[in-house]
Amino acid sequence: MKLNRIVTGIILGTLLSGTAMASSFETKARNAVLMDFDTGAYLYNKEGDKMVPPASMSKLMTVYVLFSKLKDGSLSLEDTFKVSENAWRKGGAASGGSTMFLKIGEEVKIEDLIKGILIQSGNDACIVVAENISGSEDDFVSEMEKYANKLGLKHSSFANATGLPHPDHRMSAEDLATLARHLIKDFPEYYPIFSIKEFTHNNIKQGNRNPLLYTMSDADGLKTGHTEEAGYSLTASAKRGDRRLIEVMTGMSSNKERSDEAERLMSWGFREFKNYEVLTAGQKVATAPVWAGQEESVDLVVGETVVRTLRKNKLSKIKMTAVYDKPIKAPIAKGEPVGVVKIDIPGQPTFEVPLLAANQVLKQGFFGRIGKNIKYLLTGAH
């Protein structure tokens, strides 16, 4: 039996799409990305893979390590860490950076240290966490690198737990967005801490520096950053209805510019893009003839739901192409992969989804196969 590779073009007449990366948006940020949380698609990307000083945004990596220890049970929120003189000296008020105003020898609950890092951006709190988990900040940096590799962060290198200026301390906007996505997805029990607007420790109350918490009702995280080299920067997330977006912006000239640009990019993303269900698990895509089977044909379905983030105001048809061998030789098991459907969205890479047999097709008996062969030899018809 000769098998013919068949390509069947299918047009989704009712589902229209645009290219997610096409953009007319302009920003003053030096680097910027906007990511859809569910699909991981970048709706906007301005030099997002460039390694830049992350400033305090890299504290997200510090808390990721800490959250991981809490989740695996090796630590609890009620455990306490002791403040060393080194942490007080390098990260305290005398250092000139953001601080939780910890005291030497103080025993601090992990829960409070987390709030000190995320709300107050305390450098001293980061060093306390690093020293108590790994023995020293340098050894903790190795932990940060290990987790970064595990998360697939390709453009990050760490030199400290705080984000204080260092020539070897760098992250990309894309990596920060990926890290933020993991923090939200991997630790839903701790994520609400990011949206707390103020925290008091040692009778000193400080407010959350994330400007979107005060200007956008649907914003709920994550972390600001600022040094002279990095400029005013922000990693932020907001959820509107069932959609969540994550943005990272670096290199802005002032706190006001950071606030304005961040809100503008986030609002643009919600307004201009939407998640479309391109295919639904179990959806029939094609019907294929069967060779030597008790059934003449078998329906081909997709085994997974495919969702893509697409531009709403530049719509064009999605093209789907079913590719499989014709005819398919029996026996065929239900759910057996028998081909692929190629999905082409203008401006995005073509991708494939497996095509599965919708039902079982048993092999025909001996005499039935003889009859089929004779019919094929005489008429060429299947």
How is this structure best described in words?
The protein has 382 residues and is of the alpha+beta class. It has two domains: 4-17 and 277-379, Peptidoglycan synthesis regulatory factor (PBP3), Domain 2 (Sandwich); 31-252, DD-peptidase/beta-lactamase superfamily (Beta-lactamase). Helix content is 27%, strand content 32%. The protein has helices at residues 59-71, 85-91, 110-118, 123-134, 137-150, 173-186, 212-215, 255-272, 366-379; strands at 4-17, 31-36, 42-46, 80-82, 107-109, 198-201, 204-207, 219-227, 231-240, 243-252, 273-279, 284-291, 297-302, 306-311, 316-326, 328-329, 337-344, 351-357. Strands 1-15-17-18-13-12-16 form a seven-stranded mixed beta sheet, with no helix packed on it. Strands 3-2-10-9-8 form a five-stranded antiparallel beta sheet, sandwiched between helices. The N and C termini lie close together (11 Å).
CATH class of the largest domain: Alpha Beta
Radius of gyration: 27 Å
Oligomer: single chain
CATH architectural arrangement of the largest domain = 3-Layer(aba) Sandwich
CATH-derived topology of the largest domain: Beta-lactamase
Q: Roughly what fraction of the amino acids lie in strands?
A: 25-35%
Strand count, sense and barrel status of the largest sheet are: 7 strands, mixed
CATH superfamily of the largest domain: DD-peptidase/beta-lactamase superfamily
What's the helical proportion of residues?
Answer: 25-40%
Mean pLDDT: 90
